[in-house]
């Protein structure tokens, strides 16, 4: 685990602040191929998405502790140096990279990072961009601004189940206008379909931290 200062924490955005657990990578072996194959009401706990086929980009904290590098997509503990738990990163170098801080054997910084993800590790393919300088494309709200169908009690009950259902891939969640917005490391639609199967349409929105590179 590692830590970072408040100004880096704020750079991660509201979703990270609201996250309830650290991030890592879900295992994908032996999972049913669709929500229809899973036990009734247990699709989220029975399925895992396939890794992305192409390159992805993510915004997070790169944490290097004595040469072990991770990409943290969830919350950051605010001690100094900071602490977090994330995806193992390969092909990382600090050479020519601005925006980092170092304390002892810990070096960290907040970046947009592009690369490939095999379900276990993130391999960097492009130079990282400091989050302070990164201008991401606006992501369309899948709700279209319409309220969801869940009442607060139902959404909070679902929220309590998610850490067990999603494991280390779960980054956090929060109720919003009848929806439960759920942040995960990666989803190819498998978990969104599973959530719809388990809880009904218009209740849960699954949002992956890793985003495919368009084009």
Distance between the termini: 36 Å
Helix share, percent:
10-25%
Q: How are helices and strands ordered from N to C?
A: HHHEEEEEEEHEEHEE
Strand content: 25-35%
Helix count, DSSP H or I runs of 4 or more residues: 5
The strand line-up of the biggest sheet is 1-2-3-6-5
What's a quick, concise take on this entry?
The protein has 215 residues and is of the alpha+beta class.
How is this fold's topology laid out?
Blueprint: H1 6-11, H2 14-18, H3 43-46, E1 56-65, E2 68-72, E3 87-90, E4 101-103, E5 106-117, E6 122-124, E7 129-130, H4 152-166, E8 170-176, E9 179-184, H5 190-199, E10 204-208, E11 211-212
Parallel strand pairs: 3-6, 9-10
Antiparallel strand pairs: 1-2, 1-5, 1-11, 2-3, 4-5, 5-6, 5-7, 8-9
Question: What do you see in this structure?
Answer:
The model is unreliable at 1-33 (pLDDT under 50). The protein has one domain (1-215). The protein is of the alpha+beta class and 215 residues long. The protein has helices spanning 6-11, 14-18, 43-46, 152-166, 190-199, and strands spanning 56-65, 68-72, 87-90, 101-103, 106-117, 122-124, 129-130, 170-176, 179-184, 204-208, 211-212. The protein is 19% helix and 27% strand. A 5-stranded mixed beta barrel has the order 1-2-3-6-5.
């Amino acid at each position: 685990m590692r830590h970072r200062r408040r100004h880096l924490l704020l750079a991660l955005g509201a979703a990270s602040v609201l996250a309830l657990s650290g991030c890592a990578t879900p295992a994908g072996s032996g999972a049913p191929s669709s929500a229809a194959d899973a036990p009734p009401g247990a699709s989220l706990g029975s399925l895992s998405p396939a890794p992305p086929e192409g390159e992805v980009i993510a915004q997070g904290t790169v944490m290097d502790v004595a040469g072990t590098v991770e990409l943290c997509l969830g919350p950051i503990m605010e001690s100094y140096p900071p602490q977090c738990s994330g995806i193992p990163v390969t092909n990382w170098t600090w050479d020519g990279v601005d925006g980092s801080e170092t304390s002892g054997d810990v070096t960290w910084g907040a970046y947009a990072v592009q690369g490939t993800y095999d379900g276990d590790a993130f391999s960097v393919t492009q130079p990282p961009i400091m989050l302070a300088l990164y201008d991401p494309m606006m992501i369309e709200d899948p709700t279209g601004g319409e309220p969801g169908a869940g009442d607060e009690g139902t959404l909070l009950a679902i929220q309590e189940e998610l850490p067990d259902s999603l494991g280390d891939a779960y980054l956090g969640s929060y109720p919003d206008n009848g929806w439960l917005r759920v942040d995960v490391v990666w989803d190819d639609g498998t978990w969104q379909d599973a959530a719809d199967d388990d809880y009904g349409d218009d209740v849960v929105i699954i949002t992956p931290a890793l985003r495919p590179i368009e084009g």
